[in-house]
Amino acid sequence: DVSTTYHSLQAKLEKRLSAGLWYMLSYSWSKTLVHEPQPALGTNAWEKATADFDIPQSFAGSWGYALPFGKGKKFGADMGGVGNALLGGWQIQGILTVHSGRPFTPTVSRDVANIGVGGQRPNRVGLGVKENPTVESWFDKTAFVVPANFTFGNSGGRILREDSFEVFNFSIFKEFQVKEGQRLQFRAEFFNFTNTPNFLAPSGQVDQAAGDRVTATANAPRQIQIALKYNF
């Protein structure tokens, strides 16, 4: 039967709301292995390798802060009604997610072993990892060669990794007191605030010219959303 093994170290740091600030930080360092049938290696072949959802390192941090401006705050405590309406009561929030890229497997594009199954492996003659990968050449194809006809390659499963993932979402908002029991909230939200691209894995086919070329991203470009909400 297919089996999965997971080991991890996990840590969390949390600060409850105090002086207008709160945050929660979490980190995990882990390894996920899977033992499963692998037809590309031959009939009834099984393989134990890194799982395709293995994320060795993962960090997530969220925080919020009520800016210290306006009536009753550190700055502008005696601010008048108009000034307080403009400068007081603003809050900011952020969420940062950073984690390792997922693994992928180098393959050959044709049925070298003549078994009618795709995704067969090359022979590995080098590391395959580039020190400074680019979207035009994500891994070192020269580290892999197509095996001889009617044979299987020796390269392991999921030995390379796609780009690491990083995204920062940010929001700023303020509530206006309209009358007793009624409030108007303004909110501006920025998804992928830094407009950072996170690249998916290339096809990984070592015998194709574009096999090491990245063609897609894992996230959307920066998006901005502005909203008004009336509570009564």
Distance between the termini: 57 Å
Q: Quote the average pLDDT.
A: 94
Largest sheet: 8 strands, antiparallel
Strand content: over 45%
Which descriptor suits the 3D outline? elongated
H and E string: EEEEHEEEEEEEEEE
The residue ranges in which pLDDT falls below 50 over 5 or more consecutive positions are none
Radius of gyration based on Cα positions: 26 Å
Range of helix content: under 10%
Structural class by sheet pairing and helices = mainly beta
Number of helices: 1
Kindly state the number of beta strands. 14
Which features would summarize this protein structure in a list?
232 residues; mainly beta; 8-stranded antiparallel β-sheet; two-stranded antiparallel ribbon; 14 strands; 47% strand; elongated
Entry summary:
Helices cover 3% and strands 47% of the residues. The chain is mostly beta strands and 232 residues long. The relative contact order is 0.15.
Could you outline the blueprint of secondary structure elements for this entry?
Blueprint: E1 3-18, E2 21-37, E3 46-50, E4 57-66, H1 81-87, E5 90-99, E6 103-104, E7 123-124, E8 129-134, E9 137-139, E10 144-145, E11 160-161, E12 165-179, E13 182-191, E14 223-231
Antiparallel strand pairs: 1-2, 2-3, 2-4, 4-5, 5-12, 6-11, 7-10, 8-9, 12-13, 13-14
Tell me what you see in this structure.
With 232 residues, the chain is mainly β. The chain is 3% helix and 47% strand. It has 1 helix and 14 strands; from the N terminus they run ββββαββββββββββ. The strands form 4 sheets. Strands 1, 2, 3, 4, 5, 12, 13 and 14 form an 8-stranded antiparallel beta sheet that branches. A two-stranded antiparallel ribbon has the order 6-11. The protein has a two-stranded antiparallel ribbon with strand order 7-10. A hairpin with a 2-residue loop joins strand 1 and strand 2. The longest helix is centred in the middle third of the chain and has 7 residues. The mean pLDDT is 94.
